[in-house]
Structure prediction request, 73 residues.
Amino acid sequence: MSSFLLLPFSLSPPLPLLLLFSPPTLFLSASEFFHRVGHIKATDQSLVFMAVRLRNSNQRKLSMLSPPRQARQ
Prediction:
């Protein structure tokens, strides 16, 4: 079922087919739709990169603050 729902968008169908799948009130032109989807993906990616960078810098700060760990015996 989910693959059927994803299929129309992944194949980038002609406009009439898109009109069948979405009510006219919610309808975006195909190019606008794909632009928005692309923009959302790009935003997600940059957020992930920022989160990773923040985590790495926080770990670096923590390792500078805390004394070097020595293996307890």
In short: Residues 15-65 form one domain. Confidence is low (pLDDT under 50) at residues 1-8. The two ends are 57 Å apart (CA to CA).
